[in-house]
Amino acid sequence: MALKSTPVLFGLLTRLSRRTFSTSKALASKPVTVRDALNQALDEEMARDETVFLLGEEVAQYDGAYKVSRGLWKKYGDKRVIDTPITEAGFAGIAVGAAFAGLRPVCEFMTFNFSMQAIDHVINSAAKTFYMSAGAVPVPVVFRGPNGAAAGVAAQHSQCFGAWYSHCPGLKVLMPYSSEDAKGLLKAAIRDPDPVVFLEDEILYGVPFAMSDEALADDFVLPIGKAKVERAGQHVTLVCAGKATDTALQAANQLAGEGIECEVINLRSLRPLDFDTIAQSVAKTHHLVTVEQGWPQSGIGAEICARVMESPAFFELDAPAWRVSGADVPMPYARSLETLALPRPPDVAAAVRAVLANRGECFMHTPCLGEGTVVMWDSLPEWEHTH
Amino acid sequence: MSKLLPSAAKFLTSSTIPKAAAPVVSSSSSKFSTKSEATFEIKPYKLHKLEQGPATSATLSSEDALKMYEKLAMLRRIETASGNLYKEKIIRGFCHLYSGQEAVAVGMRAAMRDVDSVITAYRCHGWTHLMGVSVLGVLSELTGRRTGCSRGKGGSMHLYGKNFYGGNGIVGAQAPLGAGIALAHKYRADGGVCFTLYGDGAANQGQLFEAYNMAKLWDLPCVFVCENNGYGMGTSVDRSSASTDYYSRGDYVPGIWVDGMDVIATREATRYAIDYCNSGKGPLVMEMETYRYSGHSMSDPGTSYRTRDEVQEVRQTRDPITSFKEKILSRELVTPDQLKEIDAQVRKEVDEATKQAKTEPEVGVEELTGDIYRNNLETLIRGLHPAAPLQHYEVAPRN
Questions:
Q1: From the CB of residue B306, how many other CB atoms can be counted at a distance below 10 Å?
Q2: In terms of CATH, what superfamily is B8-23+36-367?
Q3: Residue-wise pLDDT tens digits, A317-340
Q4: What is the pTM of this model?
Q5: CB distance from B12 to chain A under 8 Å?
């Protein structure tokens, strides 16, 4: 499986947007790729706790299909870094059984697409056992691996499982964006006594993000269930996670040039979902757009919108909330079609303009739509294709 | 009592297995038995890729005999009580009875040590009791009451105990889970073996073969125990399995066929299996041929896919309790009075537990949200609508 990540341009854009907008307090900071941050987290947690071990396809001698586990087999040996055959139901079940018996397995799915072979163990065996046993059998397992759309690998290898897994009580579901997220959240996941689904992104593995000395320290752990405000703004709230955070930040960058200031909330955790942070932001901006790569129906955006509807945050909205999501189609292979299936910054920018316009406020380059107007995509101006 | 001591000592030391610890049973009445021990022949095992099988004869002390009889009678009685509770509509949902298969669990448990672990499928009431949960803990889980071993939150398929990981409701899922528990034994080098039980129905699930493969690759101390009771729900083994030699279906995993209706055979085979796994040879498959008297579950009368005569014939000729009783009586290991006394004690204990399992209350409604997470991070647990938020409760001690 070739690594198709890190187009140079994408990396550059990410670095630019980070430099411009990151609210991280990093003073002395060092660029670290998400891959290396994950590797650090695994290494530090394995050094810290004898019961932590890694298993999955190609995690040991091959150094990981995406090189996330590079060097760990050499350092920790066969006992703690275990290559499995291609047998997801089997090794996911083995990981859960080992967790029943008190170990802390980190179970790597080469991609989460293959976790469907093992979803019974993630949900029926891992998520429910603590409850069914009335607290007698904790299940401290982490399922991790790349999730969501890669590039050019078509329908069976490109989908987001955020909505699938975050549907299930008993699981905690994390979706890191930056290197800091990746390291701090993976360490938290490994230390957590409950089953955690940890959704990484292949496209982000090779992207460097600045990490502060604090984040580089081996005691750096992020809290599960807390979102991060990546960028403060007063006009509209963008809620996103994982790779979609990058899309939202780029859109925010673009919109800033038009005088629209977006508040970008990187969820970090899909379950528990930090709704307080969203509600506080909506109370400030009165507008909400969610951004995700997964399919729209019953998705993360749908959940956020439902929670807004059910809470006082609803009365803070000056316009209907919109979802920007992956298109409701299986992922096509052809480049031109694949591009249309995933949200890009201009899509987010267009959605923001439409939501703001619904209130009757017109911003530069934004079509003025009367209140109650049904906005059709083809009624919006064509956006520029920046990449 | 003094007469008993040599045989009791023998029971503890005769096994080649360290730390032999069978469930304790009162044996004060065994002073009436006339012989302290006897040796029994075991129906020949069938071996797959093994040079040497378990011992084909076994010595049983009178104390062993009484203990094992007591456990057999107890398991049968628990299931009779369960069946009645179900018919009274006090047990809800599913209820799968173990009657007819008792010799598998009782013999295995008699050979197991404290360090060993067990995981099984949904026909788990008897195993749960043998792994240390009281009769009340089992029956009141079935009735969904607070004294249930899962506080009424698991139900009949989700019972747990020390070194006992359920009670699993998804056919075949326990196979890799058991291999994972075995991996933990090996990881910790604690010398334990995990007994992973499944039925002939689960024997065709793909993940069983995935588990065999990894267990063998990594030499996990896992004994895959196929309880072949002849039927997966209503489908007979001949209609479900291209090969019904389940002991050989691990291919590269050696296997043994055992007469699962003979508690002495299942005990000897289990001793052998523990020795085998502990010597670092990796996993083993044990097929225990047995029979299920009841239907698959309580909703199945068990008569459309087999004849009443077939069930009757097994009851009369191969019943694990009757046949064991005859053996130990005819060899004068025990007296009829001792067995009657055990029967009476078992009946009393189960009757009392049944009564309490009916009258205990269910747990408080707050436990709807009890122990969803060991470390809950949700501020509120959503109830049925936005105006009914719930709090997560920590019920089990967190230490």
A1: 16
A2: Thiamin diphosphate (ThDP)-binding fold, Pyr/PP domains (3.40.50.970)
A3: 999 999 999 999 999 999 999 999
A4: 0.89
A5: no
